[in-house]
């Protein structure tokens, strides 16, 4: 927010000086249009400037037609608003231009005349204000890479803490856990998704920028973590049904401890997946439950491992697989 305020101040100041230099009337309008045009990403700035310019020019000509036809009356402005605003609002391209269009139209109404000189003046105000906003947007956008790395580390740290808590609960079902790590992980992922979108929108020439794949990596990464967090929530639902310590719970706890250690790898090695399959086979070879309570607890642990399989499948789809990397290295 601080960077955006500074950029807005620079754009407004440049537009005001330019408006005074070109003799535009009123030059303050150029500063106002510059303030409206500054955005948080390069792509949004480009879309914003285009939408506002097109909407304002179309609104200018339509309002001029109404003023010439009906005269300069307050109710003429009302007719303009009733007709133009719904059209602009329905257009995804021009919705952002409603305010700037109104600013230009009110200038024409204040002058109470429609001349070629006045229309050119209004168009130059648009070019000056929105142009400087676009220039400032293109000159500098804060980098998100460092913050994305921090959010990744935080997410993985919280995931690891969650899995360790799950392992402790399987061994000691009476353990009380407030779920704080789950909430923190959700906040970190949400912010990561937002910053990844901002980082991607700051790329103009996607096909020519070598780091576009890096930006997409962050989007894919936090998308993966969001899906996995949903899966973890389902696992915790099953874990809540484990109210006694069983040998099966001890074996499952070891699995979650191993999973906590594999979180930071960019490569899907499949070690935990293989261990889960072996554990499933081992469960099938064990004697049947002796009591209803044991049956319910073992069923909950079994469903827990089934949801763990879903968690791992998400990582398998979105992470690089070890075998694929080996094959690529051989091909090179």
Automatic annotation (TrEMBL):
Q: How does this protein lie in the membrane?
A: Multi-pass membrane protein
Q: Which Gene3D superfamilies match?
A: Putative aromatic acid exporter, C-terminal domain
The record's InterPro entries line, in alphabetical order, gives: ArAE_1, ArAE_1_C, ArAE_1_C_sf, UPF0421
**Transmembrane as a keyword?**
yes
The keyword Transcription appears for this protein: no
Q: Which GO terms describe its cellular component?
A: plasma membrane
Q: Where is the Putative aromatic acid exporter C-terminal domain?
A: 145-314
The subcellular localization recorded is: Cell membrane
Q: Kindly state which keywords UniProt assigns to this record, in alphabetical order.
A: Cell membrane, Membrane, Transmembrane, Transmembrane helix
> Transmembrane segments in this chain: where?
58-86, 116-140
The protein here is known as: Aromatic acid exporter family protein
Q: Which domain of life is it from?
A: Bacteria
